[in-house]
Design goal:
With 163 residues, the chain is mainly α. Helices cover 52% and strands 10% of the residues. The longest helix is centred in the C-terminal third of the chain and has 21 residues, at 125-145. This is DUF955 domain-containing protein.
């Protein structure tokens, strides 16, 4: 399956989880994905390392999307991290990333790397970052065009497909 088709399918799958009543928002979609997976997803604002807008942290019993404090708009970052999750992206172990990047690492470098989402550090990392960006862009585009009534999503999709 091509990357763009994979992204479109993932966005469709997420929108299919949209609540039947009320506003269809990004935060409600995150909650719907969480319920569908049977695994809590927490969204929290945090002071992340410089240049990091968001992170997806996986724990034994839940996931956390960390969003950089002070971002003017955080919805794109949240949608990007959701994209990583629903597209099945997984990072490489941080020890492997450290071994590949540096022979000698200072305490500051190790701390920085442990705070990084390691999926972008391995082979093909740029591809998964682009795929998550494409997911975020399409999801936010569709959310902007989606009426608050879920039954009208089909009409939006038909309009996108046929103009």
């Amino acid at each position: 399956m091509s990357a763009s088709r994979r992204v479109t399918t993932a966005v469709n799958d997420v929108l299919d989880l949209a609540p039947r009543r009320g506003e269809i928002s990004l935060t409600r979609l995150v909650a719907a994905v969480s319920a569908d997976r049977g695994r809590p997803i927490e969204v929290t604002m945090a002071d992340l390392p410089p240049g990091v807008c968001g992170q997806w942290r996986q724990y034994a019993d839940h996931d956390v999307f960390m969003i950089q404090n002070g971002l003017p708009t955080w919805d794109r970052t949240l949608a990007h991290e959701l994209g990583h999750l629903v597209l099945g992206h997984y990072g490489i172990p941080v020890t492997e990333a450290a071994r590949d990047v540096a022979e000698l690492a200072s305490d500051d470098l190790i701390g920085y790397m442990l705070n990084q989402r390691t999926g972008c550090m391995g082979p093909g990392g740029e591809d998964i970052e682009q795929e998550a960006e494409d997911f975020a862009a399409l999801l936010l585009y569709r959310l902007g065009r989606s009426p608050s009534d879920r039954s009208s999503i089909v009409q939006v999709r038909l309009g996108e497909a046929f103009g």
